[in-house]
């Protein structure tokens, strides 16, 4: 299992944003679901080593998130919800900069591969600030996968995309899940059904479901994922 989480907790002041959650996950796409404010982004920030947990522990590819944060960051590609990008840079320039940070071998070749993989070809000569939202998401994904990490953590990568862009990005995530461990946060249940093998639902900082999509449905009278989600989190 490339991600192992044990009793992970985050307190912001007195507020328990994440409340002692435990789970393991390996290759495939894990849907990480929950209502607004449930603790998804906080969990993702702790797993990527950007936010220290209050208590608990986790390992990513065998590296401890507290004791080995650099190894953890090397093993992870992270697309944050806000997708911060260098809008004044050209697409290739930004990717070359990130490749330099990672010390990537043969960067020109790798950048060409990633541009192809993320469908950035037609827009590769533009400045990031000139790109549509869908293409900016593709740049965020390209940056996340550039160093070929074993684990990808994607926080709402498809929010605000038109249906054409959605199909392309979902296909890319599905393909990535064939060889990598992907944690995907989304509010779109259709997307979970299209892309995820396994689902974790978090509510008020607690895990309320952790199962395969099929088991979740059969254990809940074959209700739709949306109905199951509402039943587990509307309290
Ligand atoms: N830096 C912070 N300081 C204080 N409270 C915070 C901070 N970041 C998040 N919180 C609180 O922690 C809780 C969990 O927030 P988090 O962003 O992890 O939720 P989320 O599940 O990702 O929500 P969303 O779906 O809206 O993105 C919320 O109540 C939020 O207000």
Automatic annotation (TrEMBL):
Residue ranges annotated for the ABC transporter domain, each copy included: 3-229
GO MF annotations, alphabetized: ATP binding
Coiled coil region boundaries: none
Domain of life: Bacteria
PROSITE patterns membership: ABC_TRANSPORTER_2 (PS50893)
Keywords: ATP-binding, Nucleotide-binding, Transport
Protein name (record): ATP-binding cassette domain-containing protein
Lineage, opening ranks: Bacteria, Pseudomonadati, Bacteroidota, Sphingobacteriia, Sphingobacteriales
């Amino acid at each position: 299992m490339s991600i192992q989480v044990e009793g992970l907790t985050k307190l912001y002041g007195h507020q328990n944003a994440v409340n002692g959650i435990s789970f393991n996950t390996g290759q495939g796409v894990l849907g990480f679901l929950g209502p607004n404010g449930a603790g998804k982004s906080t969990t993702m920030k702790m797993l990527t080593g950007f936010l220290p947990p209050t208590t608990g522990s986790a390992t990513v590819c065998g590296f401890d998130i507290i004791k080995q944060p650099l190894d953890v960051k090397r093993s992870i590609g992270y697309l944050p919800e806000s997708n911060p990008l260098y809008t004044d840079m050209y697409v290739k320039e930004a990717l070359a900069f990130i490749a330099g940070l990672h010390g990537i071998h043969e960067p020109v070749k790798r950048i060409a591969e990633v541009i192809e993989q993320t469908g950035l070809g037609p827009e590769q000569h533009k400045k990031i600030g000139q790109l549509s939202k869908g293409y900016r998401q593709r740049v965020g994904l390209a940056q996340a996968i550039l160093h070929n990490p074993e684990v990808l953590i994607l926080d709402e990568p498809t929010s605000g995309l038109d249906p054409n862009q959605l199909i392309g990005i979902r296909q890319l995530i599905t393909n990535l899940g064939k060889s990598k461990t992907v944690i995907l946060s989304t509010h779109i249940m259709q997307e979970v059904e299209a892309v995820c093998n396994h689902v974790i639902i978090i509510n008020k900082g607690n895990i309320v479901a952790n199962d395969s999509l099929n088991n979740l449905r059969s254990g809940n009278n074959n209700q739709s994922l949306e109905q199951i989600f509402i039943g587990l989190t509307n309290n």
